[in-house]
Amino acid sequence: MSTSNLEVGLYIFVLSAFLGFEVIRRVPQLLHTPLMSLTNAVSGIALVGSLLIAGAHRTPLTTVLGTLAVIASTINVVSGFMITDRMLRMFRRRDEKGPQKP
Amino acid sequence: MREHLIEVTYLVAGVLFILALRWLSAPRTARRGVQAGELGMLLAIVATLLRAEIVSYEWIVVGLFVGSAIGVPMALFMPMTAMPQRTALSHAFGALAAAMVGISEFFLQTPHIERFTMGALGFEVLLGCLTFTGSLMAFGKLQGILPGRPIVYRGQNVINLSLLAVAVALAVYLVVDPGQSRLFLIVVALALVFGVFLIIPIGGADMPTVISLLNSYAGLSGAAMGFVLNNKVLIIAGALDGASGFLLSLIMSRAMNRNFRNIMFGAFGQVQAGAVAEIEERPVRTGTAEEAAMIFEAARLVIIVPGYGMAVAQAQHKVREFSDLLTRRGTEVKFAIHPVAGRMPGHMNVLLAEADVPYDQLIEMDEINSDFPRADVAVVIGANDVTNPAARHNQGSPIYGMPILEVDKARSVMVIKRSMAPGFAGIENELYYQDKTMMLFGDARAVVGDLVNELSRLRATA
After folding, report:
1. CA-closest candidate to residue B414, choices B373, B369, B449, B382
2. Does the residue A17 lie in any domain?
3. Is residue A64 part of a domain?
4. Model pLDDT for residues B4-31, shown as the tens digit of each residue
C-alpha cells in the first residue's frame, strides 16, 4: 500500500468508526444481542479477503489457508444474518401479538 | 472500467452496512436493517468474484458450500439460551478468517513487504490470532466445557504482559525486516497462546464485557486486513464492527462500575478475596409458594427482575406464563433489565422475547428504578449482585458504586434462588436480610411453576 493509499485508508477508517459510534449509540439496550449478531454477520465481510486468497491460486499453502478462511467467514455471514433475523422476529409489542392472545 | 464498477459496488455495500445499523435503532425497522446488511454482503461478494485476481473458483465453491452447510443448521437450531456461546464462536471464526488471510498475505509477499503493509499485517495477525483462541476460551467457559470460575495464579499479569510485549516487539522487528518468516511464525504462536492466557482469569459474570471486547478486536483485525489488501469495504465494515464492540464494552464496564484501564487489558474478574471473609450468620425469611401467591393476589404492580439464574434454569417460558396470569388478574407486570444481566449484552431481552414477552414490558434500568417505590412486589429471579443495595452505600464493598436495580425500594421483595451461596462477586447481598424480603429457595423454573399453580388455585377457589 502506498502512502496515499494509507492516508485514504486512515480517513475511511476514522470516519467510519465515528459514524459507527454515533449510529450504534442509538441502538437501545433491548436490541444489544441482535446488534452483536448483526455486526458479526457484517464482519463476515472478511469473506472478501478470503475469496481473493482462495481464488488467486498462488501456492498450495495459501489456497488451503484461504479456503479455511472462506469457510470460517461464510459461517459468520450465513448464520449471522439468519440468527439476527430469527431473533428480531421474536420481538413484538403487546398490540402486535397474534390472535392467540386476547 | 470493471475496476471502477467494483469500487463503486463496494461503496454501496459500505453504505448499506451503515444503514443496517441505523435501522437497528428501533425494533420496528430492525428487520429491514438485516435485509440491508444482507444486500450489502451480497453485492460485496459478487463484486469480489468479478475481480481479475480470482483465477479459479473450485476452492471458493468448496469453501462457500462447507461454510453454508455448517452455518445454516447453526442458525436454524441454535437455542436462544446458547446465544452467548454462539456469539463467542462467531468472533472466533471472524478472527480466524482474518488471521488466515494475514498469514497467506505474508507468505505471498515476503521478503519484500512495504513497511505500512507489514505494520497492518502484523496488527491483523496479532489481533486475529489472540481473538481466535481468546474467543474459543470464552466459548468453552460459556458452554461449560471449561470451568467458569476465574483461574488465577501468582504473577499472571506479568507473564501475560511480557508475552504480549515479546509478540509486539517481534512484529515491529518484522516491519524492519519482513524476510524473517520464522519470526513471523513465532509471532503467530505467541499471539495464539496470549489469547488463551487473556481469557483464563475471567469469570462468568464478566463475560458481557469480554464478549464485547472480543467483538471489537475481531472488527479491528478485519479493518487491518482492509489496509493490507487496500480494500475499502473491509476497512468500513471492520471499523463499524470495532466501534460497536468498543461501545458495548464501554456500556458494560460502566454498568459494572469498572474503569476503562480494567477492560482494555484483563484484570477483570479479579475481585479481592478479602471481601468474602465477613460472612455472618443472619436469619432470612423463607416462604412457600402458597404464602407468596397470597401476596401476589393483592398486588397491583409487580416488577420482575431476571438474571442469569433464569437463563440457566430455562425458566423464561414459565416466567411468561406467570406474568400472563398476573396480567389477566389485572396486575401490572414489568420486567427490569440490568445492562449486564446474563452473559452477554441484551441476553435477558432475547430470552424473554423468545418466551413471547412483549418488548414494551422490558424496561431498562434507568427508567424502571423510579417505579420500584410504587411496586407492591419485586421478584428477583436468579439475579444477585445487580440488586445489592450495598453498591449504593457501603464504601467497603467491592461493588460499591455499581449502578443497581433498586429492588429494595419495593414494598415487598421476593427472591427466587437456588441457595444462599453468594453471587459472582463473592459478597453477601443485604437485600436477603431485609424484613420485607421473602426467600423462595429452589430451581427457578420449578419455583415459578409452583407460583403459577398456587395462583391459579387461588383464582379457582375465589
Report:
1. B382
2. yes
3. yes
4. 999 999 999 999 999 999 999 999 999 9
pLDDT tens digits for B393-452? 888 777 888 899 999 999 999 999 888 776 666 677 889 888 899 999 999 999 999 999
**B54, B101, B117 ranked by CB distance to A46: nearest:** B101
CA distance B416 to B389: 17
Q: For residue B31, which amino acid is it?
A: R
Given the residues B206, B371, B385, B450, the one annotated as active site: B385
Strand residues in B99-222 grouped as ranges (E): none
Which chain A residues are within 8 Å of B245, Cβ to Cβ? 36, 39
One-letter amino acid at B265 equals F
Q: What is the domain count for chain A?
A: 1
Residues in chain A within 8 Å Cβ distance of B75: 78-79, 82-83, 86
Answer whether B139's CB lies under 8 Å from B204's CB. no
Q: What is the C-alpha separation between B249 and B341, in angstroms, rounded? A: 14
The distance of Cα B104 from the centroid of its chain, to the nearest Å, equals 31
**Residue A99 belongs to some domain of the structure:** no
Question: Is A102 domain-assigned?
Answer: no
The CB-side HSE value for B203 (13 A sphere, CA atoms) comes to 13
- Which chain B positions have a beta carbon within 8 Å of A3's beta carbon? 116
Contact B350 A87 (CB under 8 A): yes
Min distance B65 CA to chain A CA atoms (Å): 8
A80: domain range? 3-91
Cα distances (Å, whole numbers) of residue B75 to A36, A81, B46: 15, 9, 23
Question: Which of B31, B90, B230 has its CB closest to that of A1?
Answer: B230
The grid coordinates listed for B180 are: 524473517
Cβ atoms B353, A32 nearer than 8 A: no
- pTM here is 0.90
For the question of residue B450 being annotated catalytic, the response is no
